[in-house]
Amino acid sequence: MAKVFCSKFARALLFNGDHHGFVRFSRCIHPHHHSEAFEIPREPFHPEIGREPKLTSAEQAVELIKTGDRVYIHGGAATPLTLVDAMVKHGKKASLKNVEVVHIHTEGPGDYMKPEYEGIFRSNSMFIGGNARQAVAEGRGDFIPIFLSEIPMLFRRQVLPLDVALVHVSMPDKHGFCSMGVSVDATRSATQNAKYIIGQLNPHMPRTLGDGLIHVSHFHYVVEVNTPLFNKKPLKITPEQHIIGKTIADNLVDNGATLQLGIGEIPDATLSCLLGHKDLGIHSEMFSDGILPLIANGAVTNSKKRIHTGKAVGSFAVGSQKLYDFMNDNPTLLMMDVAHVNNTTVISQNPRVTAINSCIEVDLTGQVVSDSIGTKMFSGVGGQVDFIRGASLGYDGLGKPILALQSTTKRGESKITPFIKTGGGVVTTRAHVHYIVTEYGIAYLFGKSLRQRAHALINIAHPDVRETLEKAAFERLNCMPSP
């Protein structure tokens, strides 16, 4: 598509826009052809002169969505539930067909993924939340395996051109700027590249600093709501998970380390065991309430970080109202584009990067399954590999890529297995793996042969299965596992 710049303002946007790229389907008139829909850049930080959004109802706003459109939904705790509900009702009322809904994990019921909306909407998850698993398993929903760091690229490079973005933001400040609040992640890229943006304005959305500011003039419609954000209930940590967290905290987390923590009980358990540490930093795609005690008691200062020194860095957060209150207008916290937060080069410039993530299954050679249970898709690739690699490539050589799992499932099956289950998704390859931790100890696999890896992993498996694993290792490798 030819680029036609209709004003000095549009040309200024070109030179001042985001270095990640630009695509904007704005309506402007070509001076000779008198046609429209030429491509100019959109930069959410820059007001669009002379434009004001229309304040309307959710029902009217979603009428922008037409048959065959691709719609992006803001995710996590920022899921715009009022707009999503209106979209679902509009889809049935207007007899829409083949509307593709793209998203990372979302909260709420996800009605557009239910069987009665098949043919109207089709979900396309880039990280599968609990509300999407059934649709994906039954073939009514799709899943894109992709690193979290590269999701914004799908929109910036027009691999997935967006027609409409449904975005949940704070109320505009005195300058007209709204904030994406608790979830910037890929949403900044979506707002840069969607043809139309519908904003759900909510006084409960915290105003966070960083990349998530968007001027109200970029919205085509705005809908005002006054509803609390999704609150995540505290996770119940088992004794085994506590042991794993304490093992990591006591043996692998140094003072002055820069932490990344994935989703789940084990990362939360680790945080709870770090209160005695000093000068920790936070550079993580997500975080939850577990960081609050560490900040309150001075264990987290961010003072040793080389990138965004003195500030905690995240891309999305899911937690309690206490967490959202902490985030509101807090200059010590930056919520940023996930293409930046999860960029391996950026991660590796911080000191002692310690990446702590969970996984589902590990085979005796160190292959790590994280997104599925056999053939059943469970979550997604996420940011695990982004940070595993960033930690291993740390400039100081002191990074620690850690993967942790309880030794057995709730049914008593070993999560350390001779072979991964049929259909299991290898998210982190055996070449990426450094540390594997269970409640029985730490296996350090970097630089180890297959025979040595099997030995180390058997030693942290549940004692009841070690003999079986040893026999299986011999059959697989034709030699005894040994250190």
Q: Please, could you describe this protein's structure?
A:
An 8-stranded parallel sheet has the order 3-13-10-8-4-5-6-7, sandwiched between helices. The chain has a 6-stranded mixed sheet with strand order 15-14-20-25-28-29, sandwiched between helices. Helix content is 24%, strand content 20%. The protein is an alpha/beta fold and 483 residues long. The chain contains 15 helices and 29 strands. A hairpin with a 2-residue loop joins strand 23 (372-373) and strand 24 (376-377).
Blueprint (SSEs and pairs):
Blueprint lengths: L7 H9 L8 E2 L11 E2 L14 E2 L2 H4 L8 E4 L7 H13 L5 E5 L17 E5 L7 H5 L4 E2 L7 H6 L7 E6 L7 E3 L7 H7 L2 E6 L7 E2 L2 E3 L5 E4 L14 H13 L6 E4 L3 H8 L8 E2 L3 E2 L3 H6 L15 E3 L1 E2 L3 H7 L5 E3 L2 H4 L2 H4 L5 E6 L2 E3 L4 E2 L2 E2 L2 E2 L6 H9 L7 E5 L11 E2 L8 E3 L6 E4 L2 E4 L5 H9 L7 H12 L6
Parallel strand pairs: 3-13, 4-5, 4-8, 5-6, 6-7, 8-10, 10-13, 11-19, 14-15, 14-20, 16-18, 17-19, 20-25, 21-26, 25-28
Antiparallel strand pairs: 1-2, 9-12, 21-22, 22-27, 23-24, 28-29
In short:
The chain has 483 residues and is of the alpha/beta class.
Key attributes of the depicted protein:
483 residues; alpha/beta; 6-stranded mixed β-sheet; 20% strand
